[in-house]
Amino acid sequence: MSDRDVELLSIGSELLLGETVDTNAAFLGAELARIGLRLRLVRQLPDDVGIIADAFAEARGRRAVVLATGGLGPTHDDLTRDGLAGSLGEPLTEDPALRAELEERFRAYGRMPASNLRQAMVIPSAEILPNPIGSASGWWVERDGSVTVLLPGVPAEMRRMWTEEVRPRIARRFTLPPLVIRTVKAFGIGESMAAERLGDLLDAPPHGVEAGIYARDDGVHVRFSTAGDPGLLDEPVAAALDALGDDAYGTDDDDLASAVLGALGRGGVATLATWEADTGGALLAILAATSPAEGSARFVGGLLDAGGAASAPIADVLLQLALPAQDAHGRSRVEVAMSGRIPLARRTLRIHGSGPQRLRRAAFAALDAVRRELSSSDR
Ligand code: ATP
Ligand code: MG
């Protein structure tokens, strides 16, 4: 058992019915990685006390830390407390202070429903974690060398309790070096082609470094992480940038739109307008969400699907994007051109994906075409 390994139990039948998406797991996975712990397994469990008790017993047997969210409410189907108590063989008894607190909470609404008393029940080894924004308190349980934490299911309550109560306790108990993450970003190259070019950087990264590759709307992200010296990442990041060559557009917080606006600014362009067809305004949305940096070109507006009727906003350059319907094989092409101070001859580019991702990729493909044009004229 590695002392960095965490297991999460996402509790609630609604998760298994597909009525609620387990966003708590996504949040906690990212948070745990940031503090140097590793989420190894997520199990979604129904509101069944036997299944919950067994899952706690199994998880506690193999992990240093077990987290659970959900099932801390007042109703008969909120069984997380009962499940953990059962698996530990500890009795549930009413905590007078917790009961007084709950009654105080309810005073504004009149009498507290009797069922809420369930939320005042605790076991001897539980330390209560306060929940000032809801009625479900959390539990911190240390026993037999492992830690079990119960968090509310409501995402806002869970996040607050994690940040204010749980994360600091975990950091104190495990004295973990933080995980450092560096990302190299590329566009216009598929995930498998990128992986081929990166070769050993992905398959056999330097000792103490983990590597991964992910296809995102804005291209391929190559991620290097380490719990050791952050300097360990300098070399793989440089090597990845080198291997991806012209396809790489930045690292870490860099984004395509900022890169393009910056390059246009350096090329003497003060303002950019766009004109896009059949993209649902994806290009406009991306550019409008990009905060302007000093010396960059400014986005002054976009026109959607105007069919040539209206005139575009006045700007130094006008970036035009059209996304014709997918062909019979489901392939998409985008047409990109730019006119004005820095012209870009019309070109057709292939993109992959469907639905909203297809629209955003079309927009990123247009930005990437401008980026490539400007980086080749820089040289
Ligand atoms: P409460 O006292 O507020 O009922 P609880 O701990 O009992 O808290 P649940 O009843 O299990 O929480 O869930 C409350 C709501 O929180 C659910 O209806 C759902 O909307 C949301 N929720 C629960 N679990 C998750 C999860 N894993 N990911 C995202 N949302 C969740
Ligand atoms: Mg509930």
Write a short abstract of this structure.
By secondary structure, the chain is of the alpha/beta class. Helix content is 36%, strand content 27%.
What is the secondary structure topology, with strand pairs?
Blueprint: E1 5-11, H1 13-16, H2 23-34, E2 38-45, H3 49-62, E3 65-69, H4 80-88, E4 93-94, H5 96-107, E5 121-122, E6 126-129, E7 138-143, E8 146-151, H6 155-174, E9 180-186, H7 191-198, H8 200-203, E10 210-216, E11 219-226, H9 234-244, E12 248-251, H10 256-266, E13 271-277, H11 282-288, E14 298-304, E15 317-322, E16 332-340, E17 344-351, H12 355-378
Parallel strand pairs: 1-2, 1-3, 3-8, 13-14, 13-15
Antiparallel strand pairs: 4-5, 6-7, 7-8, 9-11, 9-12, 10-11, 15-16, 16-17
Helix pairs in contact: 3-4, 10-12, 11-12
The protein binds adenosine-5'-triphosphate and magnesium ion.
Give a structural overview.
- With 379 residues, this protein is α/β, with parallel strands linked by helices.
- Helices cover 36% and strands 27% of the residues.
- The protein has twelve helices and 17 strands.
- The chain has helices spanning 13-16, 23-34, 49-62, 80-88, 96-107, 155-174, 191-198, 200-203, 234-244, 256-266, 282-288, 355-378, and strands spanning 5-11, 38-45, 65-69, 93-94, 121-122, 126-129, 138-143, 146-151, 180-186, 210-216, 219-226, 248-251, 271-277, 298-304, 317-322, 332-340, 344-351.
- The protein has a six-stranded mixed sheet with strand order 2-1-3-8-7-6, sandwiched between helices.
- Strand 10 and strand 11 form a beta hairpin.
- Helix 3 (49-62) packs across helix 4 (80-88) and helix 11 (282-288) packs across helix 12 (355-378).
- The longest helix is centred in the last third of the chain and has 24 residues, at 355-378.
- The protein is elongated.
- The chain binds adenosine-5'-triphosphate (ATP) and magnesium ion.
